[in-house]
Amino acid sequence: MINPHPGLPELEYVKPASLSEACAFLAEHDGKAKPFAGGTDSFVRLRDGVLKLDYLVDIKGLEGTKELSFDSKKGLTIGAAVTMNQVAKHPDVIQHYPNLVQAANTVASYQLRNRATIIGNICNASPAGDTIGTCMILDGVLNIKGTEGERTIPLNAFFLAPGRTVLKAGEVVTSITLPPPPAGMVGVYKKLGRNQMSDLSIVGVAVLGYPSAKSPSGYAFRIALASVAPVPMEALKAEAILSEKKITAETIADAAVAAMDAVTPIDDVRGSARYRKLMVRNLTREALTEVWAKLSN
Ligand SMILES: Cc1cc2nc3c(=O)[nH]c(=O)nc-3n(C[C@H](O)[C@H](O)[C@H](O)COP(=O)(O)OP(=O)(O)OC[C@H]3O[C@@H](n4cnc5c(N)ncnc54)[C@H](O)[C@@H]3O)c2cc1C
User: Fold this and answer.
1) What are the structural domains of the chain?
2) pTM of the prediction?
3) For a pocket test of ligand 1, which of 124, 144, 150 has the largest count of ligand atoms closer than 8 A to its C-beta?
């Protein structure tokens, strides 16, 4: 019988001394080298032959990649080598971004989260990435270094297609910055998987809301959806409904339907497109109801 998982192919492990060296190496070996942090996506894909590389470039420990800091003006900075468990247990994250703690804790198992990083979750660019939506509606901005210098990209402009991002050859994401959360923010992440542990989402719904003098309803809501489109997406029409109309159970139901109408899921082993659509409606309604109950208290 043929072993479907024969093990890792031979490749070279590269440990650069600096980010500049990492970027130069990646640019020089474009298509044959990739950076990695936890390796929880990379090694599985290499083992399965989905990813073929000659070099894996370890970015852990390079300057700034272990930073995890909060500043009341700048917000939260999460370096590329910071693991999900480090994020989830950090007192400032627990205090200011509890919705990110909740989203991170839905990823696989505690053991996996000891390796897996938020930046790896983002750069893997899977529509199912559980922490992406929350980072997106918190207005996350990626800090990127390449051979030509540094640049920043808002997370909502980062994804092109499943597994594809706007990163250019030789570019590495060094960290993500989440601005200070809006005053009075309440957020939740709802994940539907095939089991309670260690499965990718069939549907993921990240919601946050906060009082807003700019909205006719008096509140602003943000809604991001996972596993229901080629890239993680925000349900803009649903957000507009909640901004414009007085928040009632009916408004929430209308917004949940608008979220459902915005998605373009596929059928796969985890669920049919139709099931996913209906679950977007149900989970969005559930998440909004939960957020609203706390906001209006
Ligand atoms: C058993 C199992 C269960 C899982 N369950 C879940 C789950 O429930 N939810 C979920 O969302 N994910 C899940 N995953 C996927 C994975 O664990 C996460 O996506 C994780 O966050 C990836 O982080 P990492 O640091 O391990 O990434 P890595 O494997 O190191 O990298 C992932 C990708 O990002 C690129 N990359 C990494 N860092 C950078 C950087 N700094 N700059 C540019 N590119 C970079 C790599 O080249 C690679 O393409 C699971 C994986 C396994 C093996």
Assistant:
1) 12-58 (3.30.43), 68-178 (3.30.465.10), 186-295 (3.30.390.50)
2) 0.97
3) 124
